[in-house]
Design a protein that fits this description.
The protein has helices at residues 41-59, 86-94, 98-115, 131-143, 158-165, 176-182, 223-235, 249-264, 295-300, 312-320, 332-354, 366-377, 382-400, 408-425, 431-458, 462-474; strands at 6-9, 14-17, 25-30, 63-68, 147-150, 153-156, 198-203, 219-221, 239-245, 269-275, 278-280, 283-284, 328-330, 477-482, 485-490. By secondary structure, it is an alpha/beta fold. The strands form five sheets. The protein has a four-stranded parallel β-sheet, sandwiched between helices. Strands 5-6-7-8 form a four-stranded antiparallel β-sheet. Strands 12-11-13 form a three-stranded mixed β-sheet. α4 packs across α7 (223-235). The structure holds zinc ion. Zinc ion (ZN) binds at residues 31, 227, 252.
Length: 492
């Protein structure tokens, strides 16, 4: 694997040759969703962007450990240190356990990802499952002199970090002096030495549901801690790629770097990658603007901005048609065009199977294949790669209608090239195929669960057996007992 791949590094603001620390191993960490509501277009973009990165690295032969987290604690309402916990608030309003909220929306998120043919990451750690690791890291930061405790909360000392390292703002370009002038004076801020200090551990007020014991009392981790602690745990103190949406540059990722440097002296990631935002008819997306479209609504057409439903694979193609660092504007026209483009490539996949080889070739695809690699090696330029596949599609049609000819060996190469880029790298497959794959996966999971239930019954543990039956029923799956097992069906 020579490094022909160039990645735009948000940290240096330059395109750099990709050289993993332990080639052919490559480690990638991407910030996942905060699970307190259905996934929307803004979630689809990073998921699809880094799915492309994951797939292309695999295609190039790297062994990739891809970690994408689930935030289920510590993300407060104003994305800084104030307000109610997003999941805790939803739980309070719906009278549910916070973990019920987190589980419900993680599940729905996963379903949306499957629908869009987004590969499952290698590890998907949850913040609430890594409290111990976060507490350990807070201790390290305090020991290094960059954390201070006030009233059972612990804050990161940004000024000291900046004095010692001169690194604060290196990712986001924010200047401390400007931050000083612009930081709002919020409630609770008087605990901090400086208003731009951020919480790495927060004391839990009596009404705060999610809380854990710590050396500083009952509390919960600051939002940025989880990604530092979990990336270190699964990828090491230094790893290759850290990704996320551009909205996370500051304060989230800037704080992640500061925490790692303070705790262990290492900048965590070699390459920082950020996808740009999705706008809706030219406007920023926001709950208050009424243009907040969840993926489920997009897929079933239930939103007043939608002329009709758009399929998950249309959304995937739509996202890939733009370079990940450009903004992408959502509109019915754009989605109609994306659907046409997607269908054209799918039709070509079909046509490929019907082409008969000739004795000689009058066409060659070598140049197009080379251009596809060049495009993706140039910071994952998917729109350019797609335009090459469209060109291939045009030539493939002329093979079908007989105006051009292709020999057996060249036809095999063409099939391999077209499929590997369309299906493996871009993840574009006919909707039915994706559904089939998901159904297969579902079947396997349910068969395994039923096996466990069967074993419970054999051990006369009918309580567990009934629990499993009820849980499946609640998920919309009914089962019918047979002598030696059970049949299952999805309730309509
Ligand atoms: Zn994160």
């Amino acid at each position: 694997m020579d490094s022909k791949l160039y990645i735009h590094n948000s940290l240096t603001r330059k395109k750099e040759a990709f050289k993993p620390l332990n080639s052919p191993q490559a480690g990638m960490y991407v910030c996942g969703p905060t699970v307190y509501g259905d996934a929307h277009l803004g979630h689809a973009r990073p998921a699809i962007t880094f799915d492309l990165v994951f797939r292309y690295l695999l295609h190039l032969g790297y062994k990739v450990r891809y970690v994408r987290n689930i935030t289920d604690v510590g993300h407060l309402e104003d994305d800084a240190d104030e307000g109610e916990d997003k999941i805790g608030k939803k739980a309070r309003l719906e009278k549910l356990e916070p973990m019920e909220i987190a589980h419900f929306y993680s599940d729905r998120y996963h379903r949306n990802m499957d629908q869009m043919n987004v590969k499952v990451p290698s590890i998907e750690p949850q913040a609430s499952g890594h409290i111990i690791e976060q507490i350990e890291m807070v201790k390290q930061i305090i020991d290094a002199g960059y954390g201070y405790e006030v009233n059972s909360s612990v804050y990161f000392d940004v000024q000291k970090y900046q004095n010692d390292t001169k690194k604060y703002g290196e990712l986001s370009g924010r200047v401390l002096e400007e931050l000083k002038a612009n930081t709002r004076e919020l409630e609770g801020q008087d605990e901090k030495k400086n208003p731009f200090d951020f919480a790495i551990w927060k004391n839990a007020a009596p009404e705060h549901i999610m809380r854990w014991p710590s050396p500083w009392g009952q509390g919960f981790p600051g939002w940025h801690m989880e990604c530092s602690a979990m990336s270190t745990k699964y990828l090491g103190e230094k790893f290759d790629i850290h990704g996320g949406g551009m909205d996370l540059l500051f304060p989230h990722h800037e704080s992640e770097i500061a925490q790692s440097v303070a705790a262990n002296g290492n900048e965590p990631a070699q390459y920082w990658m950020h996808n740009n935002m999705v706008t809706i008819n030219g406007q920023k997306m926001g709950k208050s603007l009424g243009n907040f479209i969840t993926l489920n609504k997009l897929f079933n057409g239930e939103h007043n901005l939608l002329e009709r439903p758009y399929s998950p694979m249309t959304i995937r193609f739509f996202m890939l048609q733009a370079h990940y660092r450009s903004t992408i504007d959502f509109s019915n026209e754009a989605l109609n065009a994306a659907e046409k483009g997607f269908k054209r490539l799918m039709k070509t996949l079909d046509t490929l199977e019907k082409i008969q080889p000739a004795n000689e070739s009058t066409v060659s695809f070598k140049e197009l294949e080379k251009k596809c690699y060049e495009a993706l090696n140039d910071d994952f330029n998917s729109p350019v790669a797609i335009s090459q596949l469209f060109e291939a599609s045009r030539i493939i049609n002329s093979l079908k209608d007989g105006s051009e000819k292709i020999a057996k060996k060249d036809l095999d190469d063409l099939k391999a090239f077209f499929k590997s880029f369309t299906v493996d790298v871009l993840g574009l497959e006919p909707e039915e195929k994706v559904k089939e794959k998901n159904d297969e996966l579902l079947s396997r999971v349910i068969e395994n669960i039923l096996q466990v239930r069967q074993e419970a019954k054999q051990n006369k543990d009918f309580q567990t057996a009934d629990k499993i039956r009820d849980a499946l029923k609640e998920a919309g799956i009914s089962i019918k007992d047979r002598k030696d097992g059970a049949d299952w069906s999805v309730e309509e």
